[in-house]
Specification:
15 helices, mainly alpha, 302 residues
Protein backbone atom coordinates (compact mmCIF):
# COMPACT_ATOMS: atom_id res chain seq x y z
CA UNK A 1 0.00 0.00 0.00
CA UNK A 2 3.02 2.27 0.08
CA UNK A 3 4.80 3.77 -2.89
CA UNK A 4 7.74 1.65 -1.84
CA UNK A 5 10.41 2.52 -4.37
CA UNK A 6 10.06 5.62 -6.46
CA UNK A 7 13.30 6.71 -8.04
CA UNK A 8 15.72 3.90 -8.78
CA UNK A 9 15.69 4.88 -12.46
CA UNK A 10 19.04 3.87 -14.11
CA UNK A 11 20.28 2.17 -10.92
CA UNK A 12 22.83 -0.59 -10.69
CA UNK A 13 23.30 -1.00 -14.41
CA UNK A 14 25.71 1.94 -14.57
CA UNK A 15 29.29 0.75 -14.38
CA UNK A 16 30.54 4.26 -15.01
CA UNK A 17 29.46 5.66 -11.64
CA UNK A 18 33.06 5.90 -10.51
CA UNK A 19 33.60 8.70 -13.02
CA UNK A 20 32.65 12.30 -12.33
CA UNK A 21 30.73 14.47 -14.76
CA UNK A 22 29.78 18.12 -14.57
CA UNK A 23 26.41 18.51 -12.85
CA UNK A 24 23.92 18.75 -15.71
CA UNK A 25 20.93 21.07 -15.86
CA UNK A 26 18.69 18.03 -15.88
CA UNK A 27 20.24 16.80 -12.64
CA UNK A 28 19.88 20.26 -11.09
CA UNK A 29 16.20 20.19 -12.07
CA UNK A 30 15.80 16.83 -10.36
CA UNK A 31 17.49 18.06 -7.16
CA UNK A 32 15.15 21.06 -7.13
CA UNK A 33 12.05 18.92 -7.76
CA UNK A 34 13.03 16.42 -5.08
CA UNK A 35 13.66 19.16 -2.51
CA UNK A 36 10.27 20.74 -3.22
CA UNK A 37 8.54 17.35 -3.07
CA UNK A 38 10.08 16.57 0.33
CA UNK A 39 8.97 19.86 1.80
CA UNK A 40 5.47 19.70 0.31
CA UNK A 41 4.84 16.14 1.44
CA UNK A 42 5.94 16.82 5.01
CA UNK A 43 3.74 19.91 5.22
CA UNK A 44 0.77 18.01 3.81
CA UNK A 45 1.30 15.18 6.30
CA UNK A 46 1.52 17.56 9.27
CA UNK A 47 -1.55 19.47 8.10
CA UNK A 48 -3.46 16.21 7.86
CA UNK A 49 -2.83 15.11 11.46
CA UNK A 50 -3.12 18.60 12.97
CA UNK A 51 -5.80 18.69 15.65
CA UNK A 52 -6.17 14.89 15.75
CA UNK A 53 -5.36 12.73 18.75
CA UNK A 54 -2.65 10.15 18.27
CA UNK A 55 -5.26 7.41 18.01
CA UNK A 56 -7.33 9.30 15.46
CA UNK A 57 -4.26 10.18 13.45
CA UNK A 58 -3.09 6.56 13.35
CA UNK A 59 -6.49 5.31 12.24
CA UNK A 60 -6.98 7.91 9.53
CA UNK A 61 -3.44 7.61 8.20
CA UNK A 62 -3.84 3.86 8.05
CA UNK A 63 -6.99 4.32 5.98
CA UNK A 64 -4.85 6.17 3.47
CA UNK A 65 -2.05 3.61 3.42
CA UNK A 66 0.26 5.84 5.49
CA UNK A 67 1.86 5.36 8.89
CA UNK A 68 1.83 7.53 11.99
CA UNK A 69 5.26 9.06 12.56
CA UNK A 70 6.43 8.46 9.00
CA UNK A 71 6.11 12.00 7.74
CA UNK A 72 9.18 12.20 5.52
CA UNK A 73 8.88 11.48 1.83
CA UNK A 74 11.75 8.99 2.11
CA UNK A 75 9.63 6.92 4.50
CA UNK A 76 7.59 5.93 1.46
CA UNK A 77 9.86 6.62 -1.49
CA UNK A 78 13.49 5.49 -1.63
CA UNK A 79 15.58 7.86 -3.72
CA UNK A 80 18.55 6.20 -5.35
CA UNK A 81 21.88 8.00 -4.81
CA UNK A 82 23.09 6.97 -8.27
CA UNK A 83 20.23 8.67 -10.09
CA UNK A 84 21.95 12.07 -10.28
CA UNK A 85 25.28 10.79 -11.64
CA UNK A 86 23.34 8.56 -14.04
CA UNK A 87 21.48 11.58 -15.42
CA UNK A 88 24.80 13.37 -15.87
CA UNK A 89 26.26 10.46 -17.82
CA UNK A 90 23.16 10.34 -20.04
CA UNK A 91 23.51 14.05 -20.78
CA UNK A 92 27.26 13.70 -21.35
CA UNK A 93 26.64 10.91 -23.83
CA UNK A 94 23.87 12.84 -25.57
CA UNK A 95 26.12 15.86 -26.04
CA UNK A 96 28.84 13.89 -27.79
CA UNK A 97 29.18 15.24 -31.31
CA UNK A 98 30.34 13.17 -34.25
CA UNK A 99 31.10 14.09 -37.85
CA UNK A 100 29.39 12.35 -40.74
CA UNK A 101 31.90 9.79 -42.06
CA UNK A 102 33.08 9.82 -45.65
CA UNK A 103 32.77 6.71 -47.76
CA UNK A 104 36.56 6.41 -47.65
CA UNK A 105 36.48 6.36 -43.84
CA UNK A 106 33.78 3.70 -43.86
CA UNK A 107 35.70 1.52 -46.31
CA UNK A 108 38.86 1.86 -44.21
CA UNK A 109 37.03 0.68 -41.07
CA UNK A 110 36.02 -2.97 -41.51
CA UNK A 111 33.46 -2.94 -38.68
CA UNK A 112 31.82 0.25 -39.89
CA UNK A 113 31.78 -1.05 -43.46
CA UNK A 114 29.94 -4.17 -42.31
CA UNK A 115 27.44 -2.07 -40.33
CA UNK A 116 26.90 0.06 -43.44
CA UNK A 117 26.37 -3.05 -45.56
CA UNK A 118 23.59 -4.18 -43.22
CA UNK A 119 21.99 -0.74 -43.42
CA UNK A 120 22.10 -0.92 -47.22
CA UNK A 121 20.59 -4.39 -47.10
CA UNK A 122 17.77 -2.99 -44.99
CA UNK A 123 16.79 -0.68 -47.84
CA UNK A 124 17.31 -3.41 -50.46
CA UNK A 125 20.48 -1.84 -51.83
CA UNK A 126 23.17 -4.18 -50.54
CA UNK A 127 24.21 -4.96 -54.12
CA UNK A 128 24.83 -1.27 -54.80
CA UNK A 129 26.86 -0.95 -51.59
CA UNK A 130 29.00 -3.94 -52.48
CA UNK A 131 29.58 -2.75 -56.03
CA UNK A 132 30.49 0.88 -55.30
CA UNK A 133 32.59 0.26 -52.19
CA UNK A 134 34.39 -2.91 -53.20
CA UNK A 135 33.59 -4.92 -56.31
CA UNK A 136 33.78 -2.25 -59.01
CA UNK A 137 37.57 -2.29 -58.86
CA UNK A 138 38.37 -5.92 -58.07
CA UNK A 139 35.88 -8.02 -60.03
CA UNK A 140 36.48 -9.14 -63.58
CA UNK A 141 34.32 -7.49 -66.21
CA UNK A 142 32.42 -10.73 -66.80
CA UNK A 143 31.75 -11.12 -63.08
CA UNK A 144 30.50 -7.53 -62.82
CA UNK A 145 28.21 -8.12 -65.79
CA UNK A 146 26.80 -11.38 -64.41
CA UNK A 147 26.38 -9.97 -60.90
CA UNK A 148 25.42 -6.31 -61.24
CA UNK A 149 24.48 -5.59 -64.87
CA UNK A 150 22.56 -8.67 -65.95
CA UNK A 151 22.06 -10.39 -62.59
CA UNK A 152 19.04 -10.63 -60.29
CA UNK A 153 20.05 -7.46 -58.43
CA UNK A 154 21.16 -4.79 -60.88
CA UNK A 155 22.75 -1.41 -60.22
CA UNK A 156 21.20 1.68 -61.79
CA UNK A 157 22.98 2.67 -65.00
CA UNK A 158 22.00 4.50 -68.15
CA UNK A 159 20.55 2.61 -71.12
CA UNK A 160 23.58 3.68 -73.17
CA UNK A 161 25.99 2.16 -70.66
CA UNK A 162 23.89 -0.99 -70.41
CA UNK A 163 24.02 -1.32 -74.19
CA UNK A 164 27.82 -1.08 -74.06
CA UNK A 165 27.90 -3.84 -71.45
CA UNK A 166 25.74 -6.06 -73.66
CA UNK A 167 28.19 -5.49 -76.52
CA UNK A 168 31.08 -6.37 -74.21
CA UNK A 169 29.28 -9.57 -73.26
CA UNK A 170 28.80 -10.50 -76.95
CA UNK A 171 32.51 -9.96 -77.38
CA UNK A 172 33.12 -12.33 -74.44
CA UNK A 173 34.86 -9.43 -72.74
CA UNK A 174 37.74 -9.68 -75.14
CA UNK A 175 39.42 -6.30 -75.41
CA UNK A 176 40.10 -6.38 -79.16
CA UNK A 177 36.65 -7.72 -80.10
CA UNK A 178 34.90 -5.19 -77.88
CA UNK A 179 36.93 -2.27 -79.29
CA UNK A 180 36.10 -3.40 -82.80
CA UNK A 181 32.36 -3.59 -81.99
CA UNK A 182 31.95 -0.53 -79.78
CA UNK A 183 34.96 1.67 -80.54
CA UNK A 184 35.62 1.71 -76.81
CA UNK A 185 37.83 0.00 -74.20
CA UNK A 186 36.81 -2.20 -71.29
CA UNK A 187 38.72 0.07 -68.91
CA UNK A 188 36.68 3.07 -70.02
CA UNK A 189 33.46 1.07 -69.65
CA UNK A 190 34.42 0.04 -66.11
CA UNK A 191 35.22 3.65 -65.21
CA UNK A 192 32.08 5.07 -66.87
CA UNK A 193 29.85 2.58 -65.03
CA UNK A 194 31.38 3.46 -61.66
CA UNK A 195 31.11 7.20 -62.26
CA UNK A 196 27.40 7.25 -63.16
CA UNK A 197 26.21 6.50 -59.60
CA UNK A 198 22.54 7.29 -60.22
CA UNK A 199 21.24 5.96 -56.88
CA UNK A 200 24.55 6.05 -55.03
CA UNK A 201 24.28 9.50 -53.45
CA UNK A 202 20.90 8.68 -51.95
CA UNK A 203 22.14 5.35 -50.60
CA UNK A 204 25.32 6.88 -49.18
CA UNK A 205 23.26 9.53 -47.40
CA UNK A 206 21.02 6.87 -45.88
CA UNK A 207 24.02 4.89 -44.70
CA UNK A 208 26.09 7.74 -43.24
CA UNK A 209 23.11 9.26 -41.43
CA UNK A 210 21.79 5.94 -40.14
CA UNK A 211 21.33 5.32 -36.43
CA UNK A 212 23.51 2.22 -36.69
CA UNK A 213 26.54 4.09 -38.05
CA UNK A 214 25.97 6.99 -35.66
CA UNK A 215 25.79 4.59 -32.70
CA UNK A 216 29.04 2.94 -33.78
CA UNK A 217 30.85 6.27 -33.99
CA UNK A 218 29.32 7.50 -30.76
CA UNK A 219 30.50 4.37 -29.02
CA UNK A 220 34.06 5.17 -30.05
CA UNK A 221 33.75 8.75 -28.79
CA UNK A 222 31.93 7.68 -25.62
CA UNK A 223 34.88 5.54 -24.56
CA UNK A 224 37.01 8.67 -24.59
CA UNK A 225 34.63 10.00 -21.90
CA UNK A 226 34.81 6.73 -19.94
CA UNK A 227 31.28 5.89 -21.05
CA UNK A 228 30.20 2.48 -22.23
CA UNK A 229 27.58 3.01 -24.94
CA UNK A 230 25.93 -0.38 -24.42
CA UNK A 231 25.52 0.37 -20.73
CA UNK A 232 24.06 3.81 -21.48
CA UNK A 233 21.58 2.34 -23.95
CA UNK A 234 20.48 -0.37 -21.51
CA UNK A 235 20.19 2.24 -18.78
CA UNK A 236 17.92 4.37 -20.94
CA UNK A 237 15.59 1.42 -21.50
CA UNK A 238 15.65 0.62 -17.80
CA UNK A 239 14.96 4.25 -16.94
CA UNK A 240 11.80 4.27 -19.03
CA UNK A 241 10.74 0.95 -17.56
CA UNK A 242 11.28 2.24 -14.03
CA UNK A 243 9.40 5.43 -14.83
CA UNK A 244 6.39 3.35 -15.83
CA UNK A 245 6.76 0.99 -12.88
CA UNK A 246 7.01 3.69 -10.24
CA UNK A 247 4.38 5.87 -11.82
CA UNK A 248 2.12 2.89 -11.33
CA UNK A 249 3.28 2.61 -7.70
CA UNK A 250 2.23 6.21 -7.04
CA UNK A 251 -1.08 5.57 -8.79
CA UNK A 252 -1.60 2.53 -6.58
CA UNK A 253 -1.08 4.60 -3.44
CA UNK A 254 -3.55 7.20 -4.66
CA UNK A 255 -6.00 4.39 -5.41
CA UNK A 256 -5.50 3.03 -1.89
CA UNK A 257 -6.36 6.45 -0.49
CA UNK A 258 -9.52 6.74 -2.55
CA UNK A 259 -10.52 3.18 -1.71
CA UNK A 260 -9.93 3.72 2.00
CA UNK A 261 -12.09 6.85 2.01
CA UNK A 262 -14.84 5.12 0.05
CA UNK A 263 -14.95 2.20 2.51
CA UNK A 264 -15.29 4.45 5.55
CA UNK A 265 -18.78 3.95 7.04
CA UNK A 266 -18.77 6.95 9.35
CA UNK A 267 -20.05 9.82 7.18
CA UNK A 268 -18.43 12.47 9.34
CA UNK A 269 -15.02 10.75 9.25
CA UNK A 270 -15.42 10.10 5.55
CA UNK A 271 -16.09 13.76 4.85
CA UNK A 272 -13.11 14.76 6.97
CA UNK A 273 -10.85 12.26 5.20
CA UNK A 274 -11.87 13.62 1.82
CA UNK A 275 -11.20 17.16 2.89
CA UNK A 276 -7.95 16.62 4.73
CA UNK A 277 -6.42 14.18 2.24
CA UNK A 278 -6.68 16.62 -0.68
CA UNK A 279 -3.28 18.13 -0.04
CA UNK A 280 -1.60 14.75 0.36
CA UNK A 281 -3.16 13.52 -2.87
CA UNK A 282 -2.12 16.72 -4.62
CA UNK A 283 1.52 16.23 -3.62
CA UNK A 284 1.47 12.62 -4.79
CA UNK A 285 -0.08 13.72 -8.08
CA UNK A 286 2.65 16.33 -8.39
CA UNK A 287 5.26 13.61 -7.86
CA UNK A 288 3.55 11.54 -10.50
CA UNK A 289 3.73 14.45 -12.93
CA UNK A 290 7.44 14.92 -12.20
CA UNK A 291 8.06 11.27 -12.95
CA UNK A 292 6.08 11.48 -16.18
CA UNK A 293 8.02 14.59 -17.16
CA UNK A 294 11.38 12.91 -16.64
CA UNK A 295 10.24 9.83 -18.55
CA UNK A 296 9.10 11.99 -21.44
CA UNK A 297 12.36 13.92 -21.47
CA UNK A 298 14.50 10.77 -21.38
CA UNK A 299 12.45 9.16 -24.13
CA UNK A 300 12.39 12.21 -26.41
CA UNK A 301 15.82 13.69 -25.84
CA UNK A 302 18.08 10.87 -24.68
Amino acid sequence: MRATTFIMLLVMIFTCNSYTYAKSDMRKDWIKEKKQARKAFKEAYEDFIEGLSKKEAKEQLEELGLKYGDKELEDYIKFDKDFGPAIDSLVTYHEIEIETPTVEEIIADEKMWEIARKVANGVHEEHSWLYYTRDHGIMSMKKIYDTYINGSTQINISSETRDRWNKASKANFDEEQYTAIAGDTLAKLRKKTYEEKYAWKSLLSQVTSSEEVEDYLKDIEAKKHNLDYKVVKKARKLALKRCNTYSQAVKDLLHTMRKGIKKEDDKKVKKELKKESKKLKKELNDLLEVLRSFAKKIKKKY
